[in-house]
């Protein structure tokens, strides 16, 4: 992770803790993250040919009523300091800090197809029981998996894929 992004994310997180509003800040930063997932928006706000006044005007129209005052001012600061190009990394690091704060483990679920929200929630709940903490999973489509899923949380792998089962069966048959 980028050192600049880390510093900004940690600073905002400290303010969120001081304000006793970590959850509210997290929700605001999720909104910001949803907007800046579009690389053309990041390019617009990062472009040196676009005046800071225009950037701040667009930011005001987009975010002033959507997020809290501190988060809005934080975004303005990123524009003034020409650090808005790091917004995706800042959002990701901020979310990571929030998850740590709330005791939530973050991981990935690899699947050969798109999972429904209900299926993803069931998997998160099952892994949460195994880990002993709340788990938030990000879905990654892996067409190399024939079927089933593979979950990675904190360098632990929970493999329930068909590929893994076939490989295990092969090893067992070769031993006999």
TrEMBL record:
InterPro entries: ATP_synth_OSCP/delta_N_sf, ATPase_OSCP/dsu. Keywords: ATP synthesis, Cell membrane, CF(1), Hydrogen ion transport, Ion transport, Membrane, Transport. Its main location: membrane. SUPFAM superfamilies: N-terminal domain of the delta subunit of the F1F0-ATP synthase. The keyword Transport applies. It is found in: Cell membrane; Membrane. Pfam families: OSCP. It is a peripheral membrane protein. One of its GO terms (cellular component) is proton-transporting ATP synthase complex. It comes from the Bacteria. One of its GO terms (molecular function) is proton-transporting ATP synthase activity, rotational mechanism. This protein is part of the stalk that links CF(0) to CF(1). It either transmits conformational changes from CF(0) to CF(1) or is implicated in proton conduction. Belongs to the ATPase delta chain family. This is ATP synthase subunit delta. It comes from Longibaculum muris.
């Amino acid at each position: 992770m980028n050192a600049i992004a880390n510093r900004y994310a940690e600073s905002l997180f400290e303010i969120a803790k001081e304000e006793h509003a970590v959850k509210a800040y997290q929700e605001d930063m999720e909104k910001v993250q949803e907007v800046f997932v579009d690389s053309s928006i990041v390019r617009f706000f990062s472009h040196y040919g676009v005046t800071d006044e225009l950037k701040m005007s667009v930011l005001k129209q987009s975010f002033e009523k959507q997020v809290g005052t501190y988060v809005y001012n934080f975004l303005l600061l990123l524009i003034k300091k020409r650090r808005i190009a790091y917004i995706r990394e800042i959002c990701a690091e901020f979310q990571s800090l929030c998850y740590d704060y709330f005791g939530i483990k973050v991981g990935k679920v690899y699947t050969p197809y798109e999972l429904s929200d209900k299926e993803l929630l069931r998997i998160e709940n099952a892994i949460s029981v195994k880990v002993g903490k709340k788990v938030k999973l990000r879905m990654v489509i892996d067409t190399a998996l024939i079927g089933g899923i593979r979950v990675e949380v904190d360098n632990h792998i929970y493999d329930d894929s068909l590929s893994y089962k076939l490989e295990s069966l092969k090893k067992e048959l070769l031993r006999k």
